[in-house]
User: Which sequence fits this backbone?
């Protein structure tokens, strides 16, 4: 039976080639969409590392475009002023709030000459945070501690790493207490000492891939860039109308500055929107394309069966039952789709094998996307075969033999 | 001859109505997607309405500063000082306007907090862009000089803040991030690169005047030429001006460059990150768009090829007769391609109507705020071009196959 089917398909190879090619491209599109969606789902379920509930961010915009550096007294003044508000539970300063679009990255390496053990540079994202930042963001330390007053006057700048960074920098060792330096060509590179490790921190939100991350302690005078974002943990139930009082209080500190106040929940919503809107647009377009493929396959199969009416009549005359004819049409279509899918999988499996998309297309995502897209394509092509097959099987042998 | 093609094509289309409908549906679906994209691009690159003076409009959006050793590069927006001191005095242009990019601000009304996008603009901004004024007036240079705390709202925001007609908003006071402004005018909503904002205020309403001393900052400069033919000259002029700009700290940054770009160039420069050459990468961007569109057509074209191949088989006796009477293969091939292109053009016309519907939905759905896409002659031209390319792409292969049919077999009806 199978050999017979293969022979029939092979006889019409140029025509079937075009059909398989079409199915192959449709398969690739569904695969891409499924992989994209599954990866997002996978990321969404990973721990975020911080708690954004009731946290507001205040971005300070000094009038002088940031030429004058912030000093300790200024930070203290802001801290004091804000803590006095009854709605505010905790105050912290960071360079960028979570869910912001900004990024600061650098390369780090362990001390010692270049090329020695651990001499390789590790790329990491980083922000500066003050002693209060961990409390505001609800960071949970897996090892060690967060920054505090005992770090005052430390020779190396204290840092807290996320676990990923700690493992990349110190594989198989305990990171806390270790030192490393910034990998650049300055004569005395900045030195850092690890005081703690957090489980995870994904500042770009739920749909961002986990990355190396490091917090450095905000120390006015030593930092490369000022922390100009204030994070406030508010009492639960504080409403948005607190913003005006907060703004007025901040204006008391510096009247010629402007302040952009946003609840993190708003930033989260807009971040999620910017990340998911492309997927939705691509999804809608892909849905239209699949609809089109469905119409095309349906039309092509219909024409196929119409052409093959004499052949079908002959089979019927020789004793094949209606259901056998029906099964033949559906099985041929199934085989065509399988050829296209196997070919498509052989091509697509190169993506995780060569690692062009890195971790974004890992094996679970690949397997899930392959299964989903296989199911979609089989369903589509079988649905398209059902009506033409039924129509062909209904023909009476006498009619079919006479058909011209 | 051509009339015969048309007649045959019509007869063939009508004989199998279901398949013609399926064919047409596939064509329309493809073309709608492509035409929506084309009209969005047309609106972005060559808008009409508020930013309708595209043919004599240039803008400086990015400034590149390099350190003495060339190892440090900073790309920022131009500051007010750069525009005021170097660009505004430029001879041979109609006017130069300074405006900030939109920034999010909070408007406080009692217990209500609304987030709006705010720009600060000088009086020239209102003359370079053609906003339609719905009520009140637009800021003038007298307002700039006096530093009056006035603001212009767009229609949606006026409606949101002060329910009622635009007139009722004029004269009201609003608290924007602690500064109190008086609303003097209400303009129409606009979604364009330089026109998009909810609220505008004069530049002189900044809490401090530090912006006056900044070479790099928050601004973009809009340059309006007197004639379209002046643009290349102005672009050269701006590049020359950039060479003469001296940074406040020349040991830190000794080389400054910026370019006056058209809309397309601005987008291309941002996307291709080419800040160090006069060439904005617009050619690359356009080529990329064309390739992406062709790639997008691949699947629908294959689909149509499959459908068309099936139809040829139905017509093989017709082809046999024509071949027996001496029609050459190329004549037959041309005929089929013409038929296919005709069907695609018909599909293109339907798709244009559907595109108008999709765009109307996009405008009302608020996915992109204040979106207003105009279906003009240019979009129609692009649409027909896309339809023709698509027709050729999907018609050539079946036509080639058809022309190869052997007349004897074709006449007998065997393949």
Assistant:
């Amino acid at each position: 039976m199978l050999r017979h089917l293969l022979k029939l398909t092979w006889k019409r190879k140029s025509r079937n080639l075009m059909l398989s090619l079409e199915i192959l491209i449709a398969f690739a599109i569904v695969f891409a969409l499924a992989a994209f969606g599954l990866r997002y789902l996978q990321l969404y379920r990973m721990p975020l590392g911080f708690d954004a509930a009731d946290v507001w961010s205040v971005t300070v915009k000094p009038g002088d475009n940031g030429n004058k550096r912030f000093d300790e007294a200024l930070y203290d003044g802001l801290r004091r002023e804000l803590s006095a508000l009854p709605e505010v539970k905790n105050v912290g300063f960071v360079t960028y709030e979570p869910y912001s679009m900004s990024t600061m990255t650098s390369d780090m390496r362990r001390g010692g000459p270049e090329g020695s053990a651990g001499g390789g540079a590790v790329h990491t994202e980083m922000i500066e945070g003050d002693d209060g930042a961990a409390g505001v963001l609800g960071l949970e330390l897996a090892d060690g501690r967060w920054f505090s007053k005992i770090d005052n006057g430390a020779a190396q700048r204290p840092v807290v790493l996320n676990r990923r960074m700690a493992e990349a920098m110190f594989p198989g060792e305990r990171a806390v207490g270790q030192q490393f330096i910034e990998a650049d060509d300055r004569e005395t590179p900045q030195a850092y000492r690890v005081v703690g490790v957090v489980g995870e921190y994904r500042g770009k939100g739920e749909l961002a891939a986990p990355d190396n991350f490091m917090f450095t302690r905000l120390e006015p005078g030593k930092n490369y860039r000022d922390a100009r974002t204030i994070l406030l943990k508010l009492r639960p139930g504080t409403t948005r109308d607190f913003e005006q009082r907060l703004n007025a209080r901040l204006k008391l500190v510096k009247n010629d500055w402007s302040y952009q106040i946003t609840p993190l929940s708003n930033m989260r919503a807009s971040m999620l929107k910017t990340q998911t809107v492309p997927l939705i647009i691509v999804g809608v377009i892909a849905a239209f394309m699949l609809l089109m493929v469905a119409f095309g396959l349906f039309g092509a199969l219909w024409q196929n069966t119409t052409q093959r009416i004499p052949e079908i009549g002959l089979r019927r005359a020789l004793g094949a039952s209606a259901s056998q004819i029906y099964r033949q049409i559906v099985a041929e279509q199934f085989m065509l789709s399988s050829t296209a899918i196997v070919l498509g999988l052989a091509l697509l499996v190169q993506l995780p094998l060569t690692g062009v998309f890195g971790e974004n297309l890992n094996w679970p995502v690949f397997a899930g996307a392959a299964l989903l897209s296989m199911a979609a394509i089989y369903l589509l092509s079988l649905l398209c075969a059902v009506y033409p097959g039924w129509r062909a099987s209904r023909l009476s042998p006498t009619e079919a033999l006479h058909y011209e | 001859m051509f009339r015969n093609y048309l007649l045959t094509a019509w007869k063939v289309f009508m004989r199998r109505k279901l398949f013609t409908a399926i064919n047409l549906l596939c064509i329309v679906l493809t073309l709608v997607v492509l035409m929506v994209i084309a009209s969005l691009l047309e609106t972005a690159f060559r808008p009409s309405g508020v930013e309708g003076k595209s043919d004599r409009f240039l803008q400086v959006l990015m400034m590149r500063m390099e350190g003495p050793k060339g190892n440090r590069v900073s790309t920022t927006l131009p500051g007010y000082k750069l525009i005021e001191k170097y660009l505004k005095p430029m001879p041979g242009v109609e006017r130069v306007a300074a405006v900030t990019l939109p920034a999010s601000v909070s408007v406080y009304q009692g217990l209500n907090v609304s987030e709006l996008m705010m720009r600060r603009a000088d009086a020239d901004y209102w003359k370079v862009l053609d906003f339609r004024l719905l009520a009140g007036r637009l800021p003038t240079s007298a307002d700039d000089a006096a530093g009056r705390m006035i603001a212009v709202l767009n229609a949606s925001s006026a409606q949101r803040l002060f329910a009622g007609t635009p007139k009722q908003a004029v004269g009201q006071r609003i608290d924007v991030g602690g500064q109190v402004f008086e609303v003097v005018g209400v303009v129409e909503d606009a979604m364009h690169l330089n026109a998009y904002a909810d609220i505008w205020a004069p530049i002189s309403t900044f809490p401090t005047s530090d912006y006056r001393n900044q070479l790099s900052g928050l601004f973009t400069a809009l340059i309006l030429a007197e004639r379209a033919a002046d643009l290349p000259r102005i672009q050269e002029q701006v590049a020359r001006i950039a060479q003469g700009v001296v940074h406040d700290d020349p040991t830190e940054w000794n080389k400054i460059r910026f370019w006056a770009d058209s809309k397309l160039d601005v987008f291309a420069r941002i996307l291709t990150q080419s800040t160090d050459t006069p060439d904005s990468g617009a050619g690359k961007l356009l080529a990329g768009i064309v390739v992406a569109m062709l790639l997008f057509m691949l699947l629908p074209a294959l689909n149509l090829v499959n459908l068309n191949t099936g139809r040829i088989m139905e017509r093989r006796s017709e082809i046999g007769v024509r071949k027996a009477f001496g029609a050459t293969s190329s004549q037959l091939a041309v005929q089929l391609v013409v038929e296919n292109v005709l069907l695609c053009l018909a599909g293109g016309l339907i798709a244009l109507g559907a595109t108008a519907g999709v765009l109307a939905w996009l405008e009302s759905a608020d996915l992109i705020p204040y979106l207003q896409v105009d279906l003009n002659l240019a979009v129609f031209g692009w649409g027909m071009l896309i339809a023709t390319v698509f027709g050729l792409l999907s018609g050539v292969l079946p036509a080639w196959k058809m022309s190869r049919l052997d007349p004897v077999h074709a006449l007998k009806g065997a393949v």
Summary: Chain A touches chain B through 47 residues (CB under 8 Å).
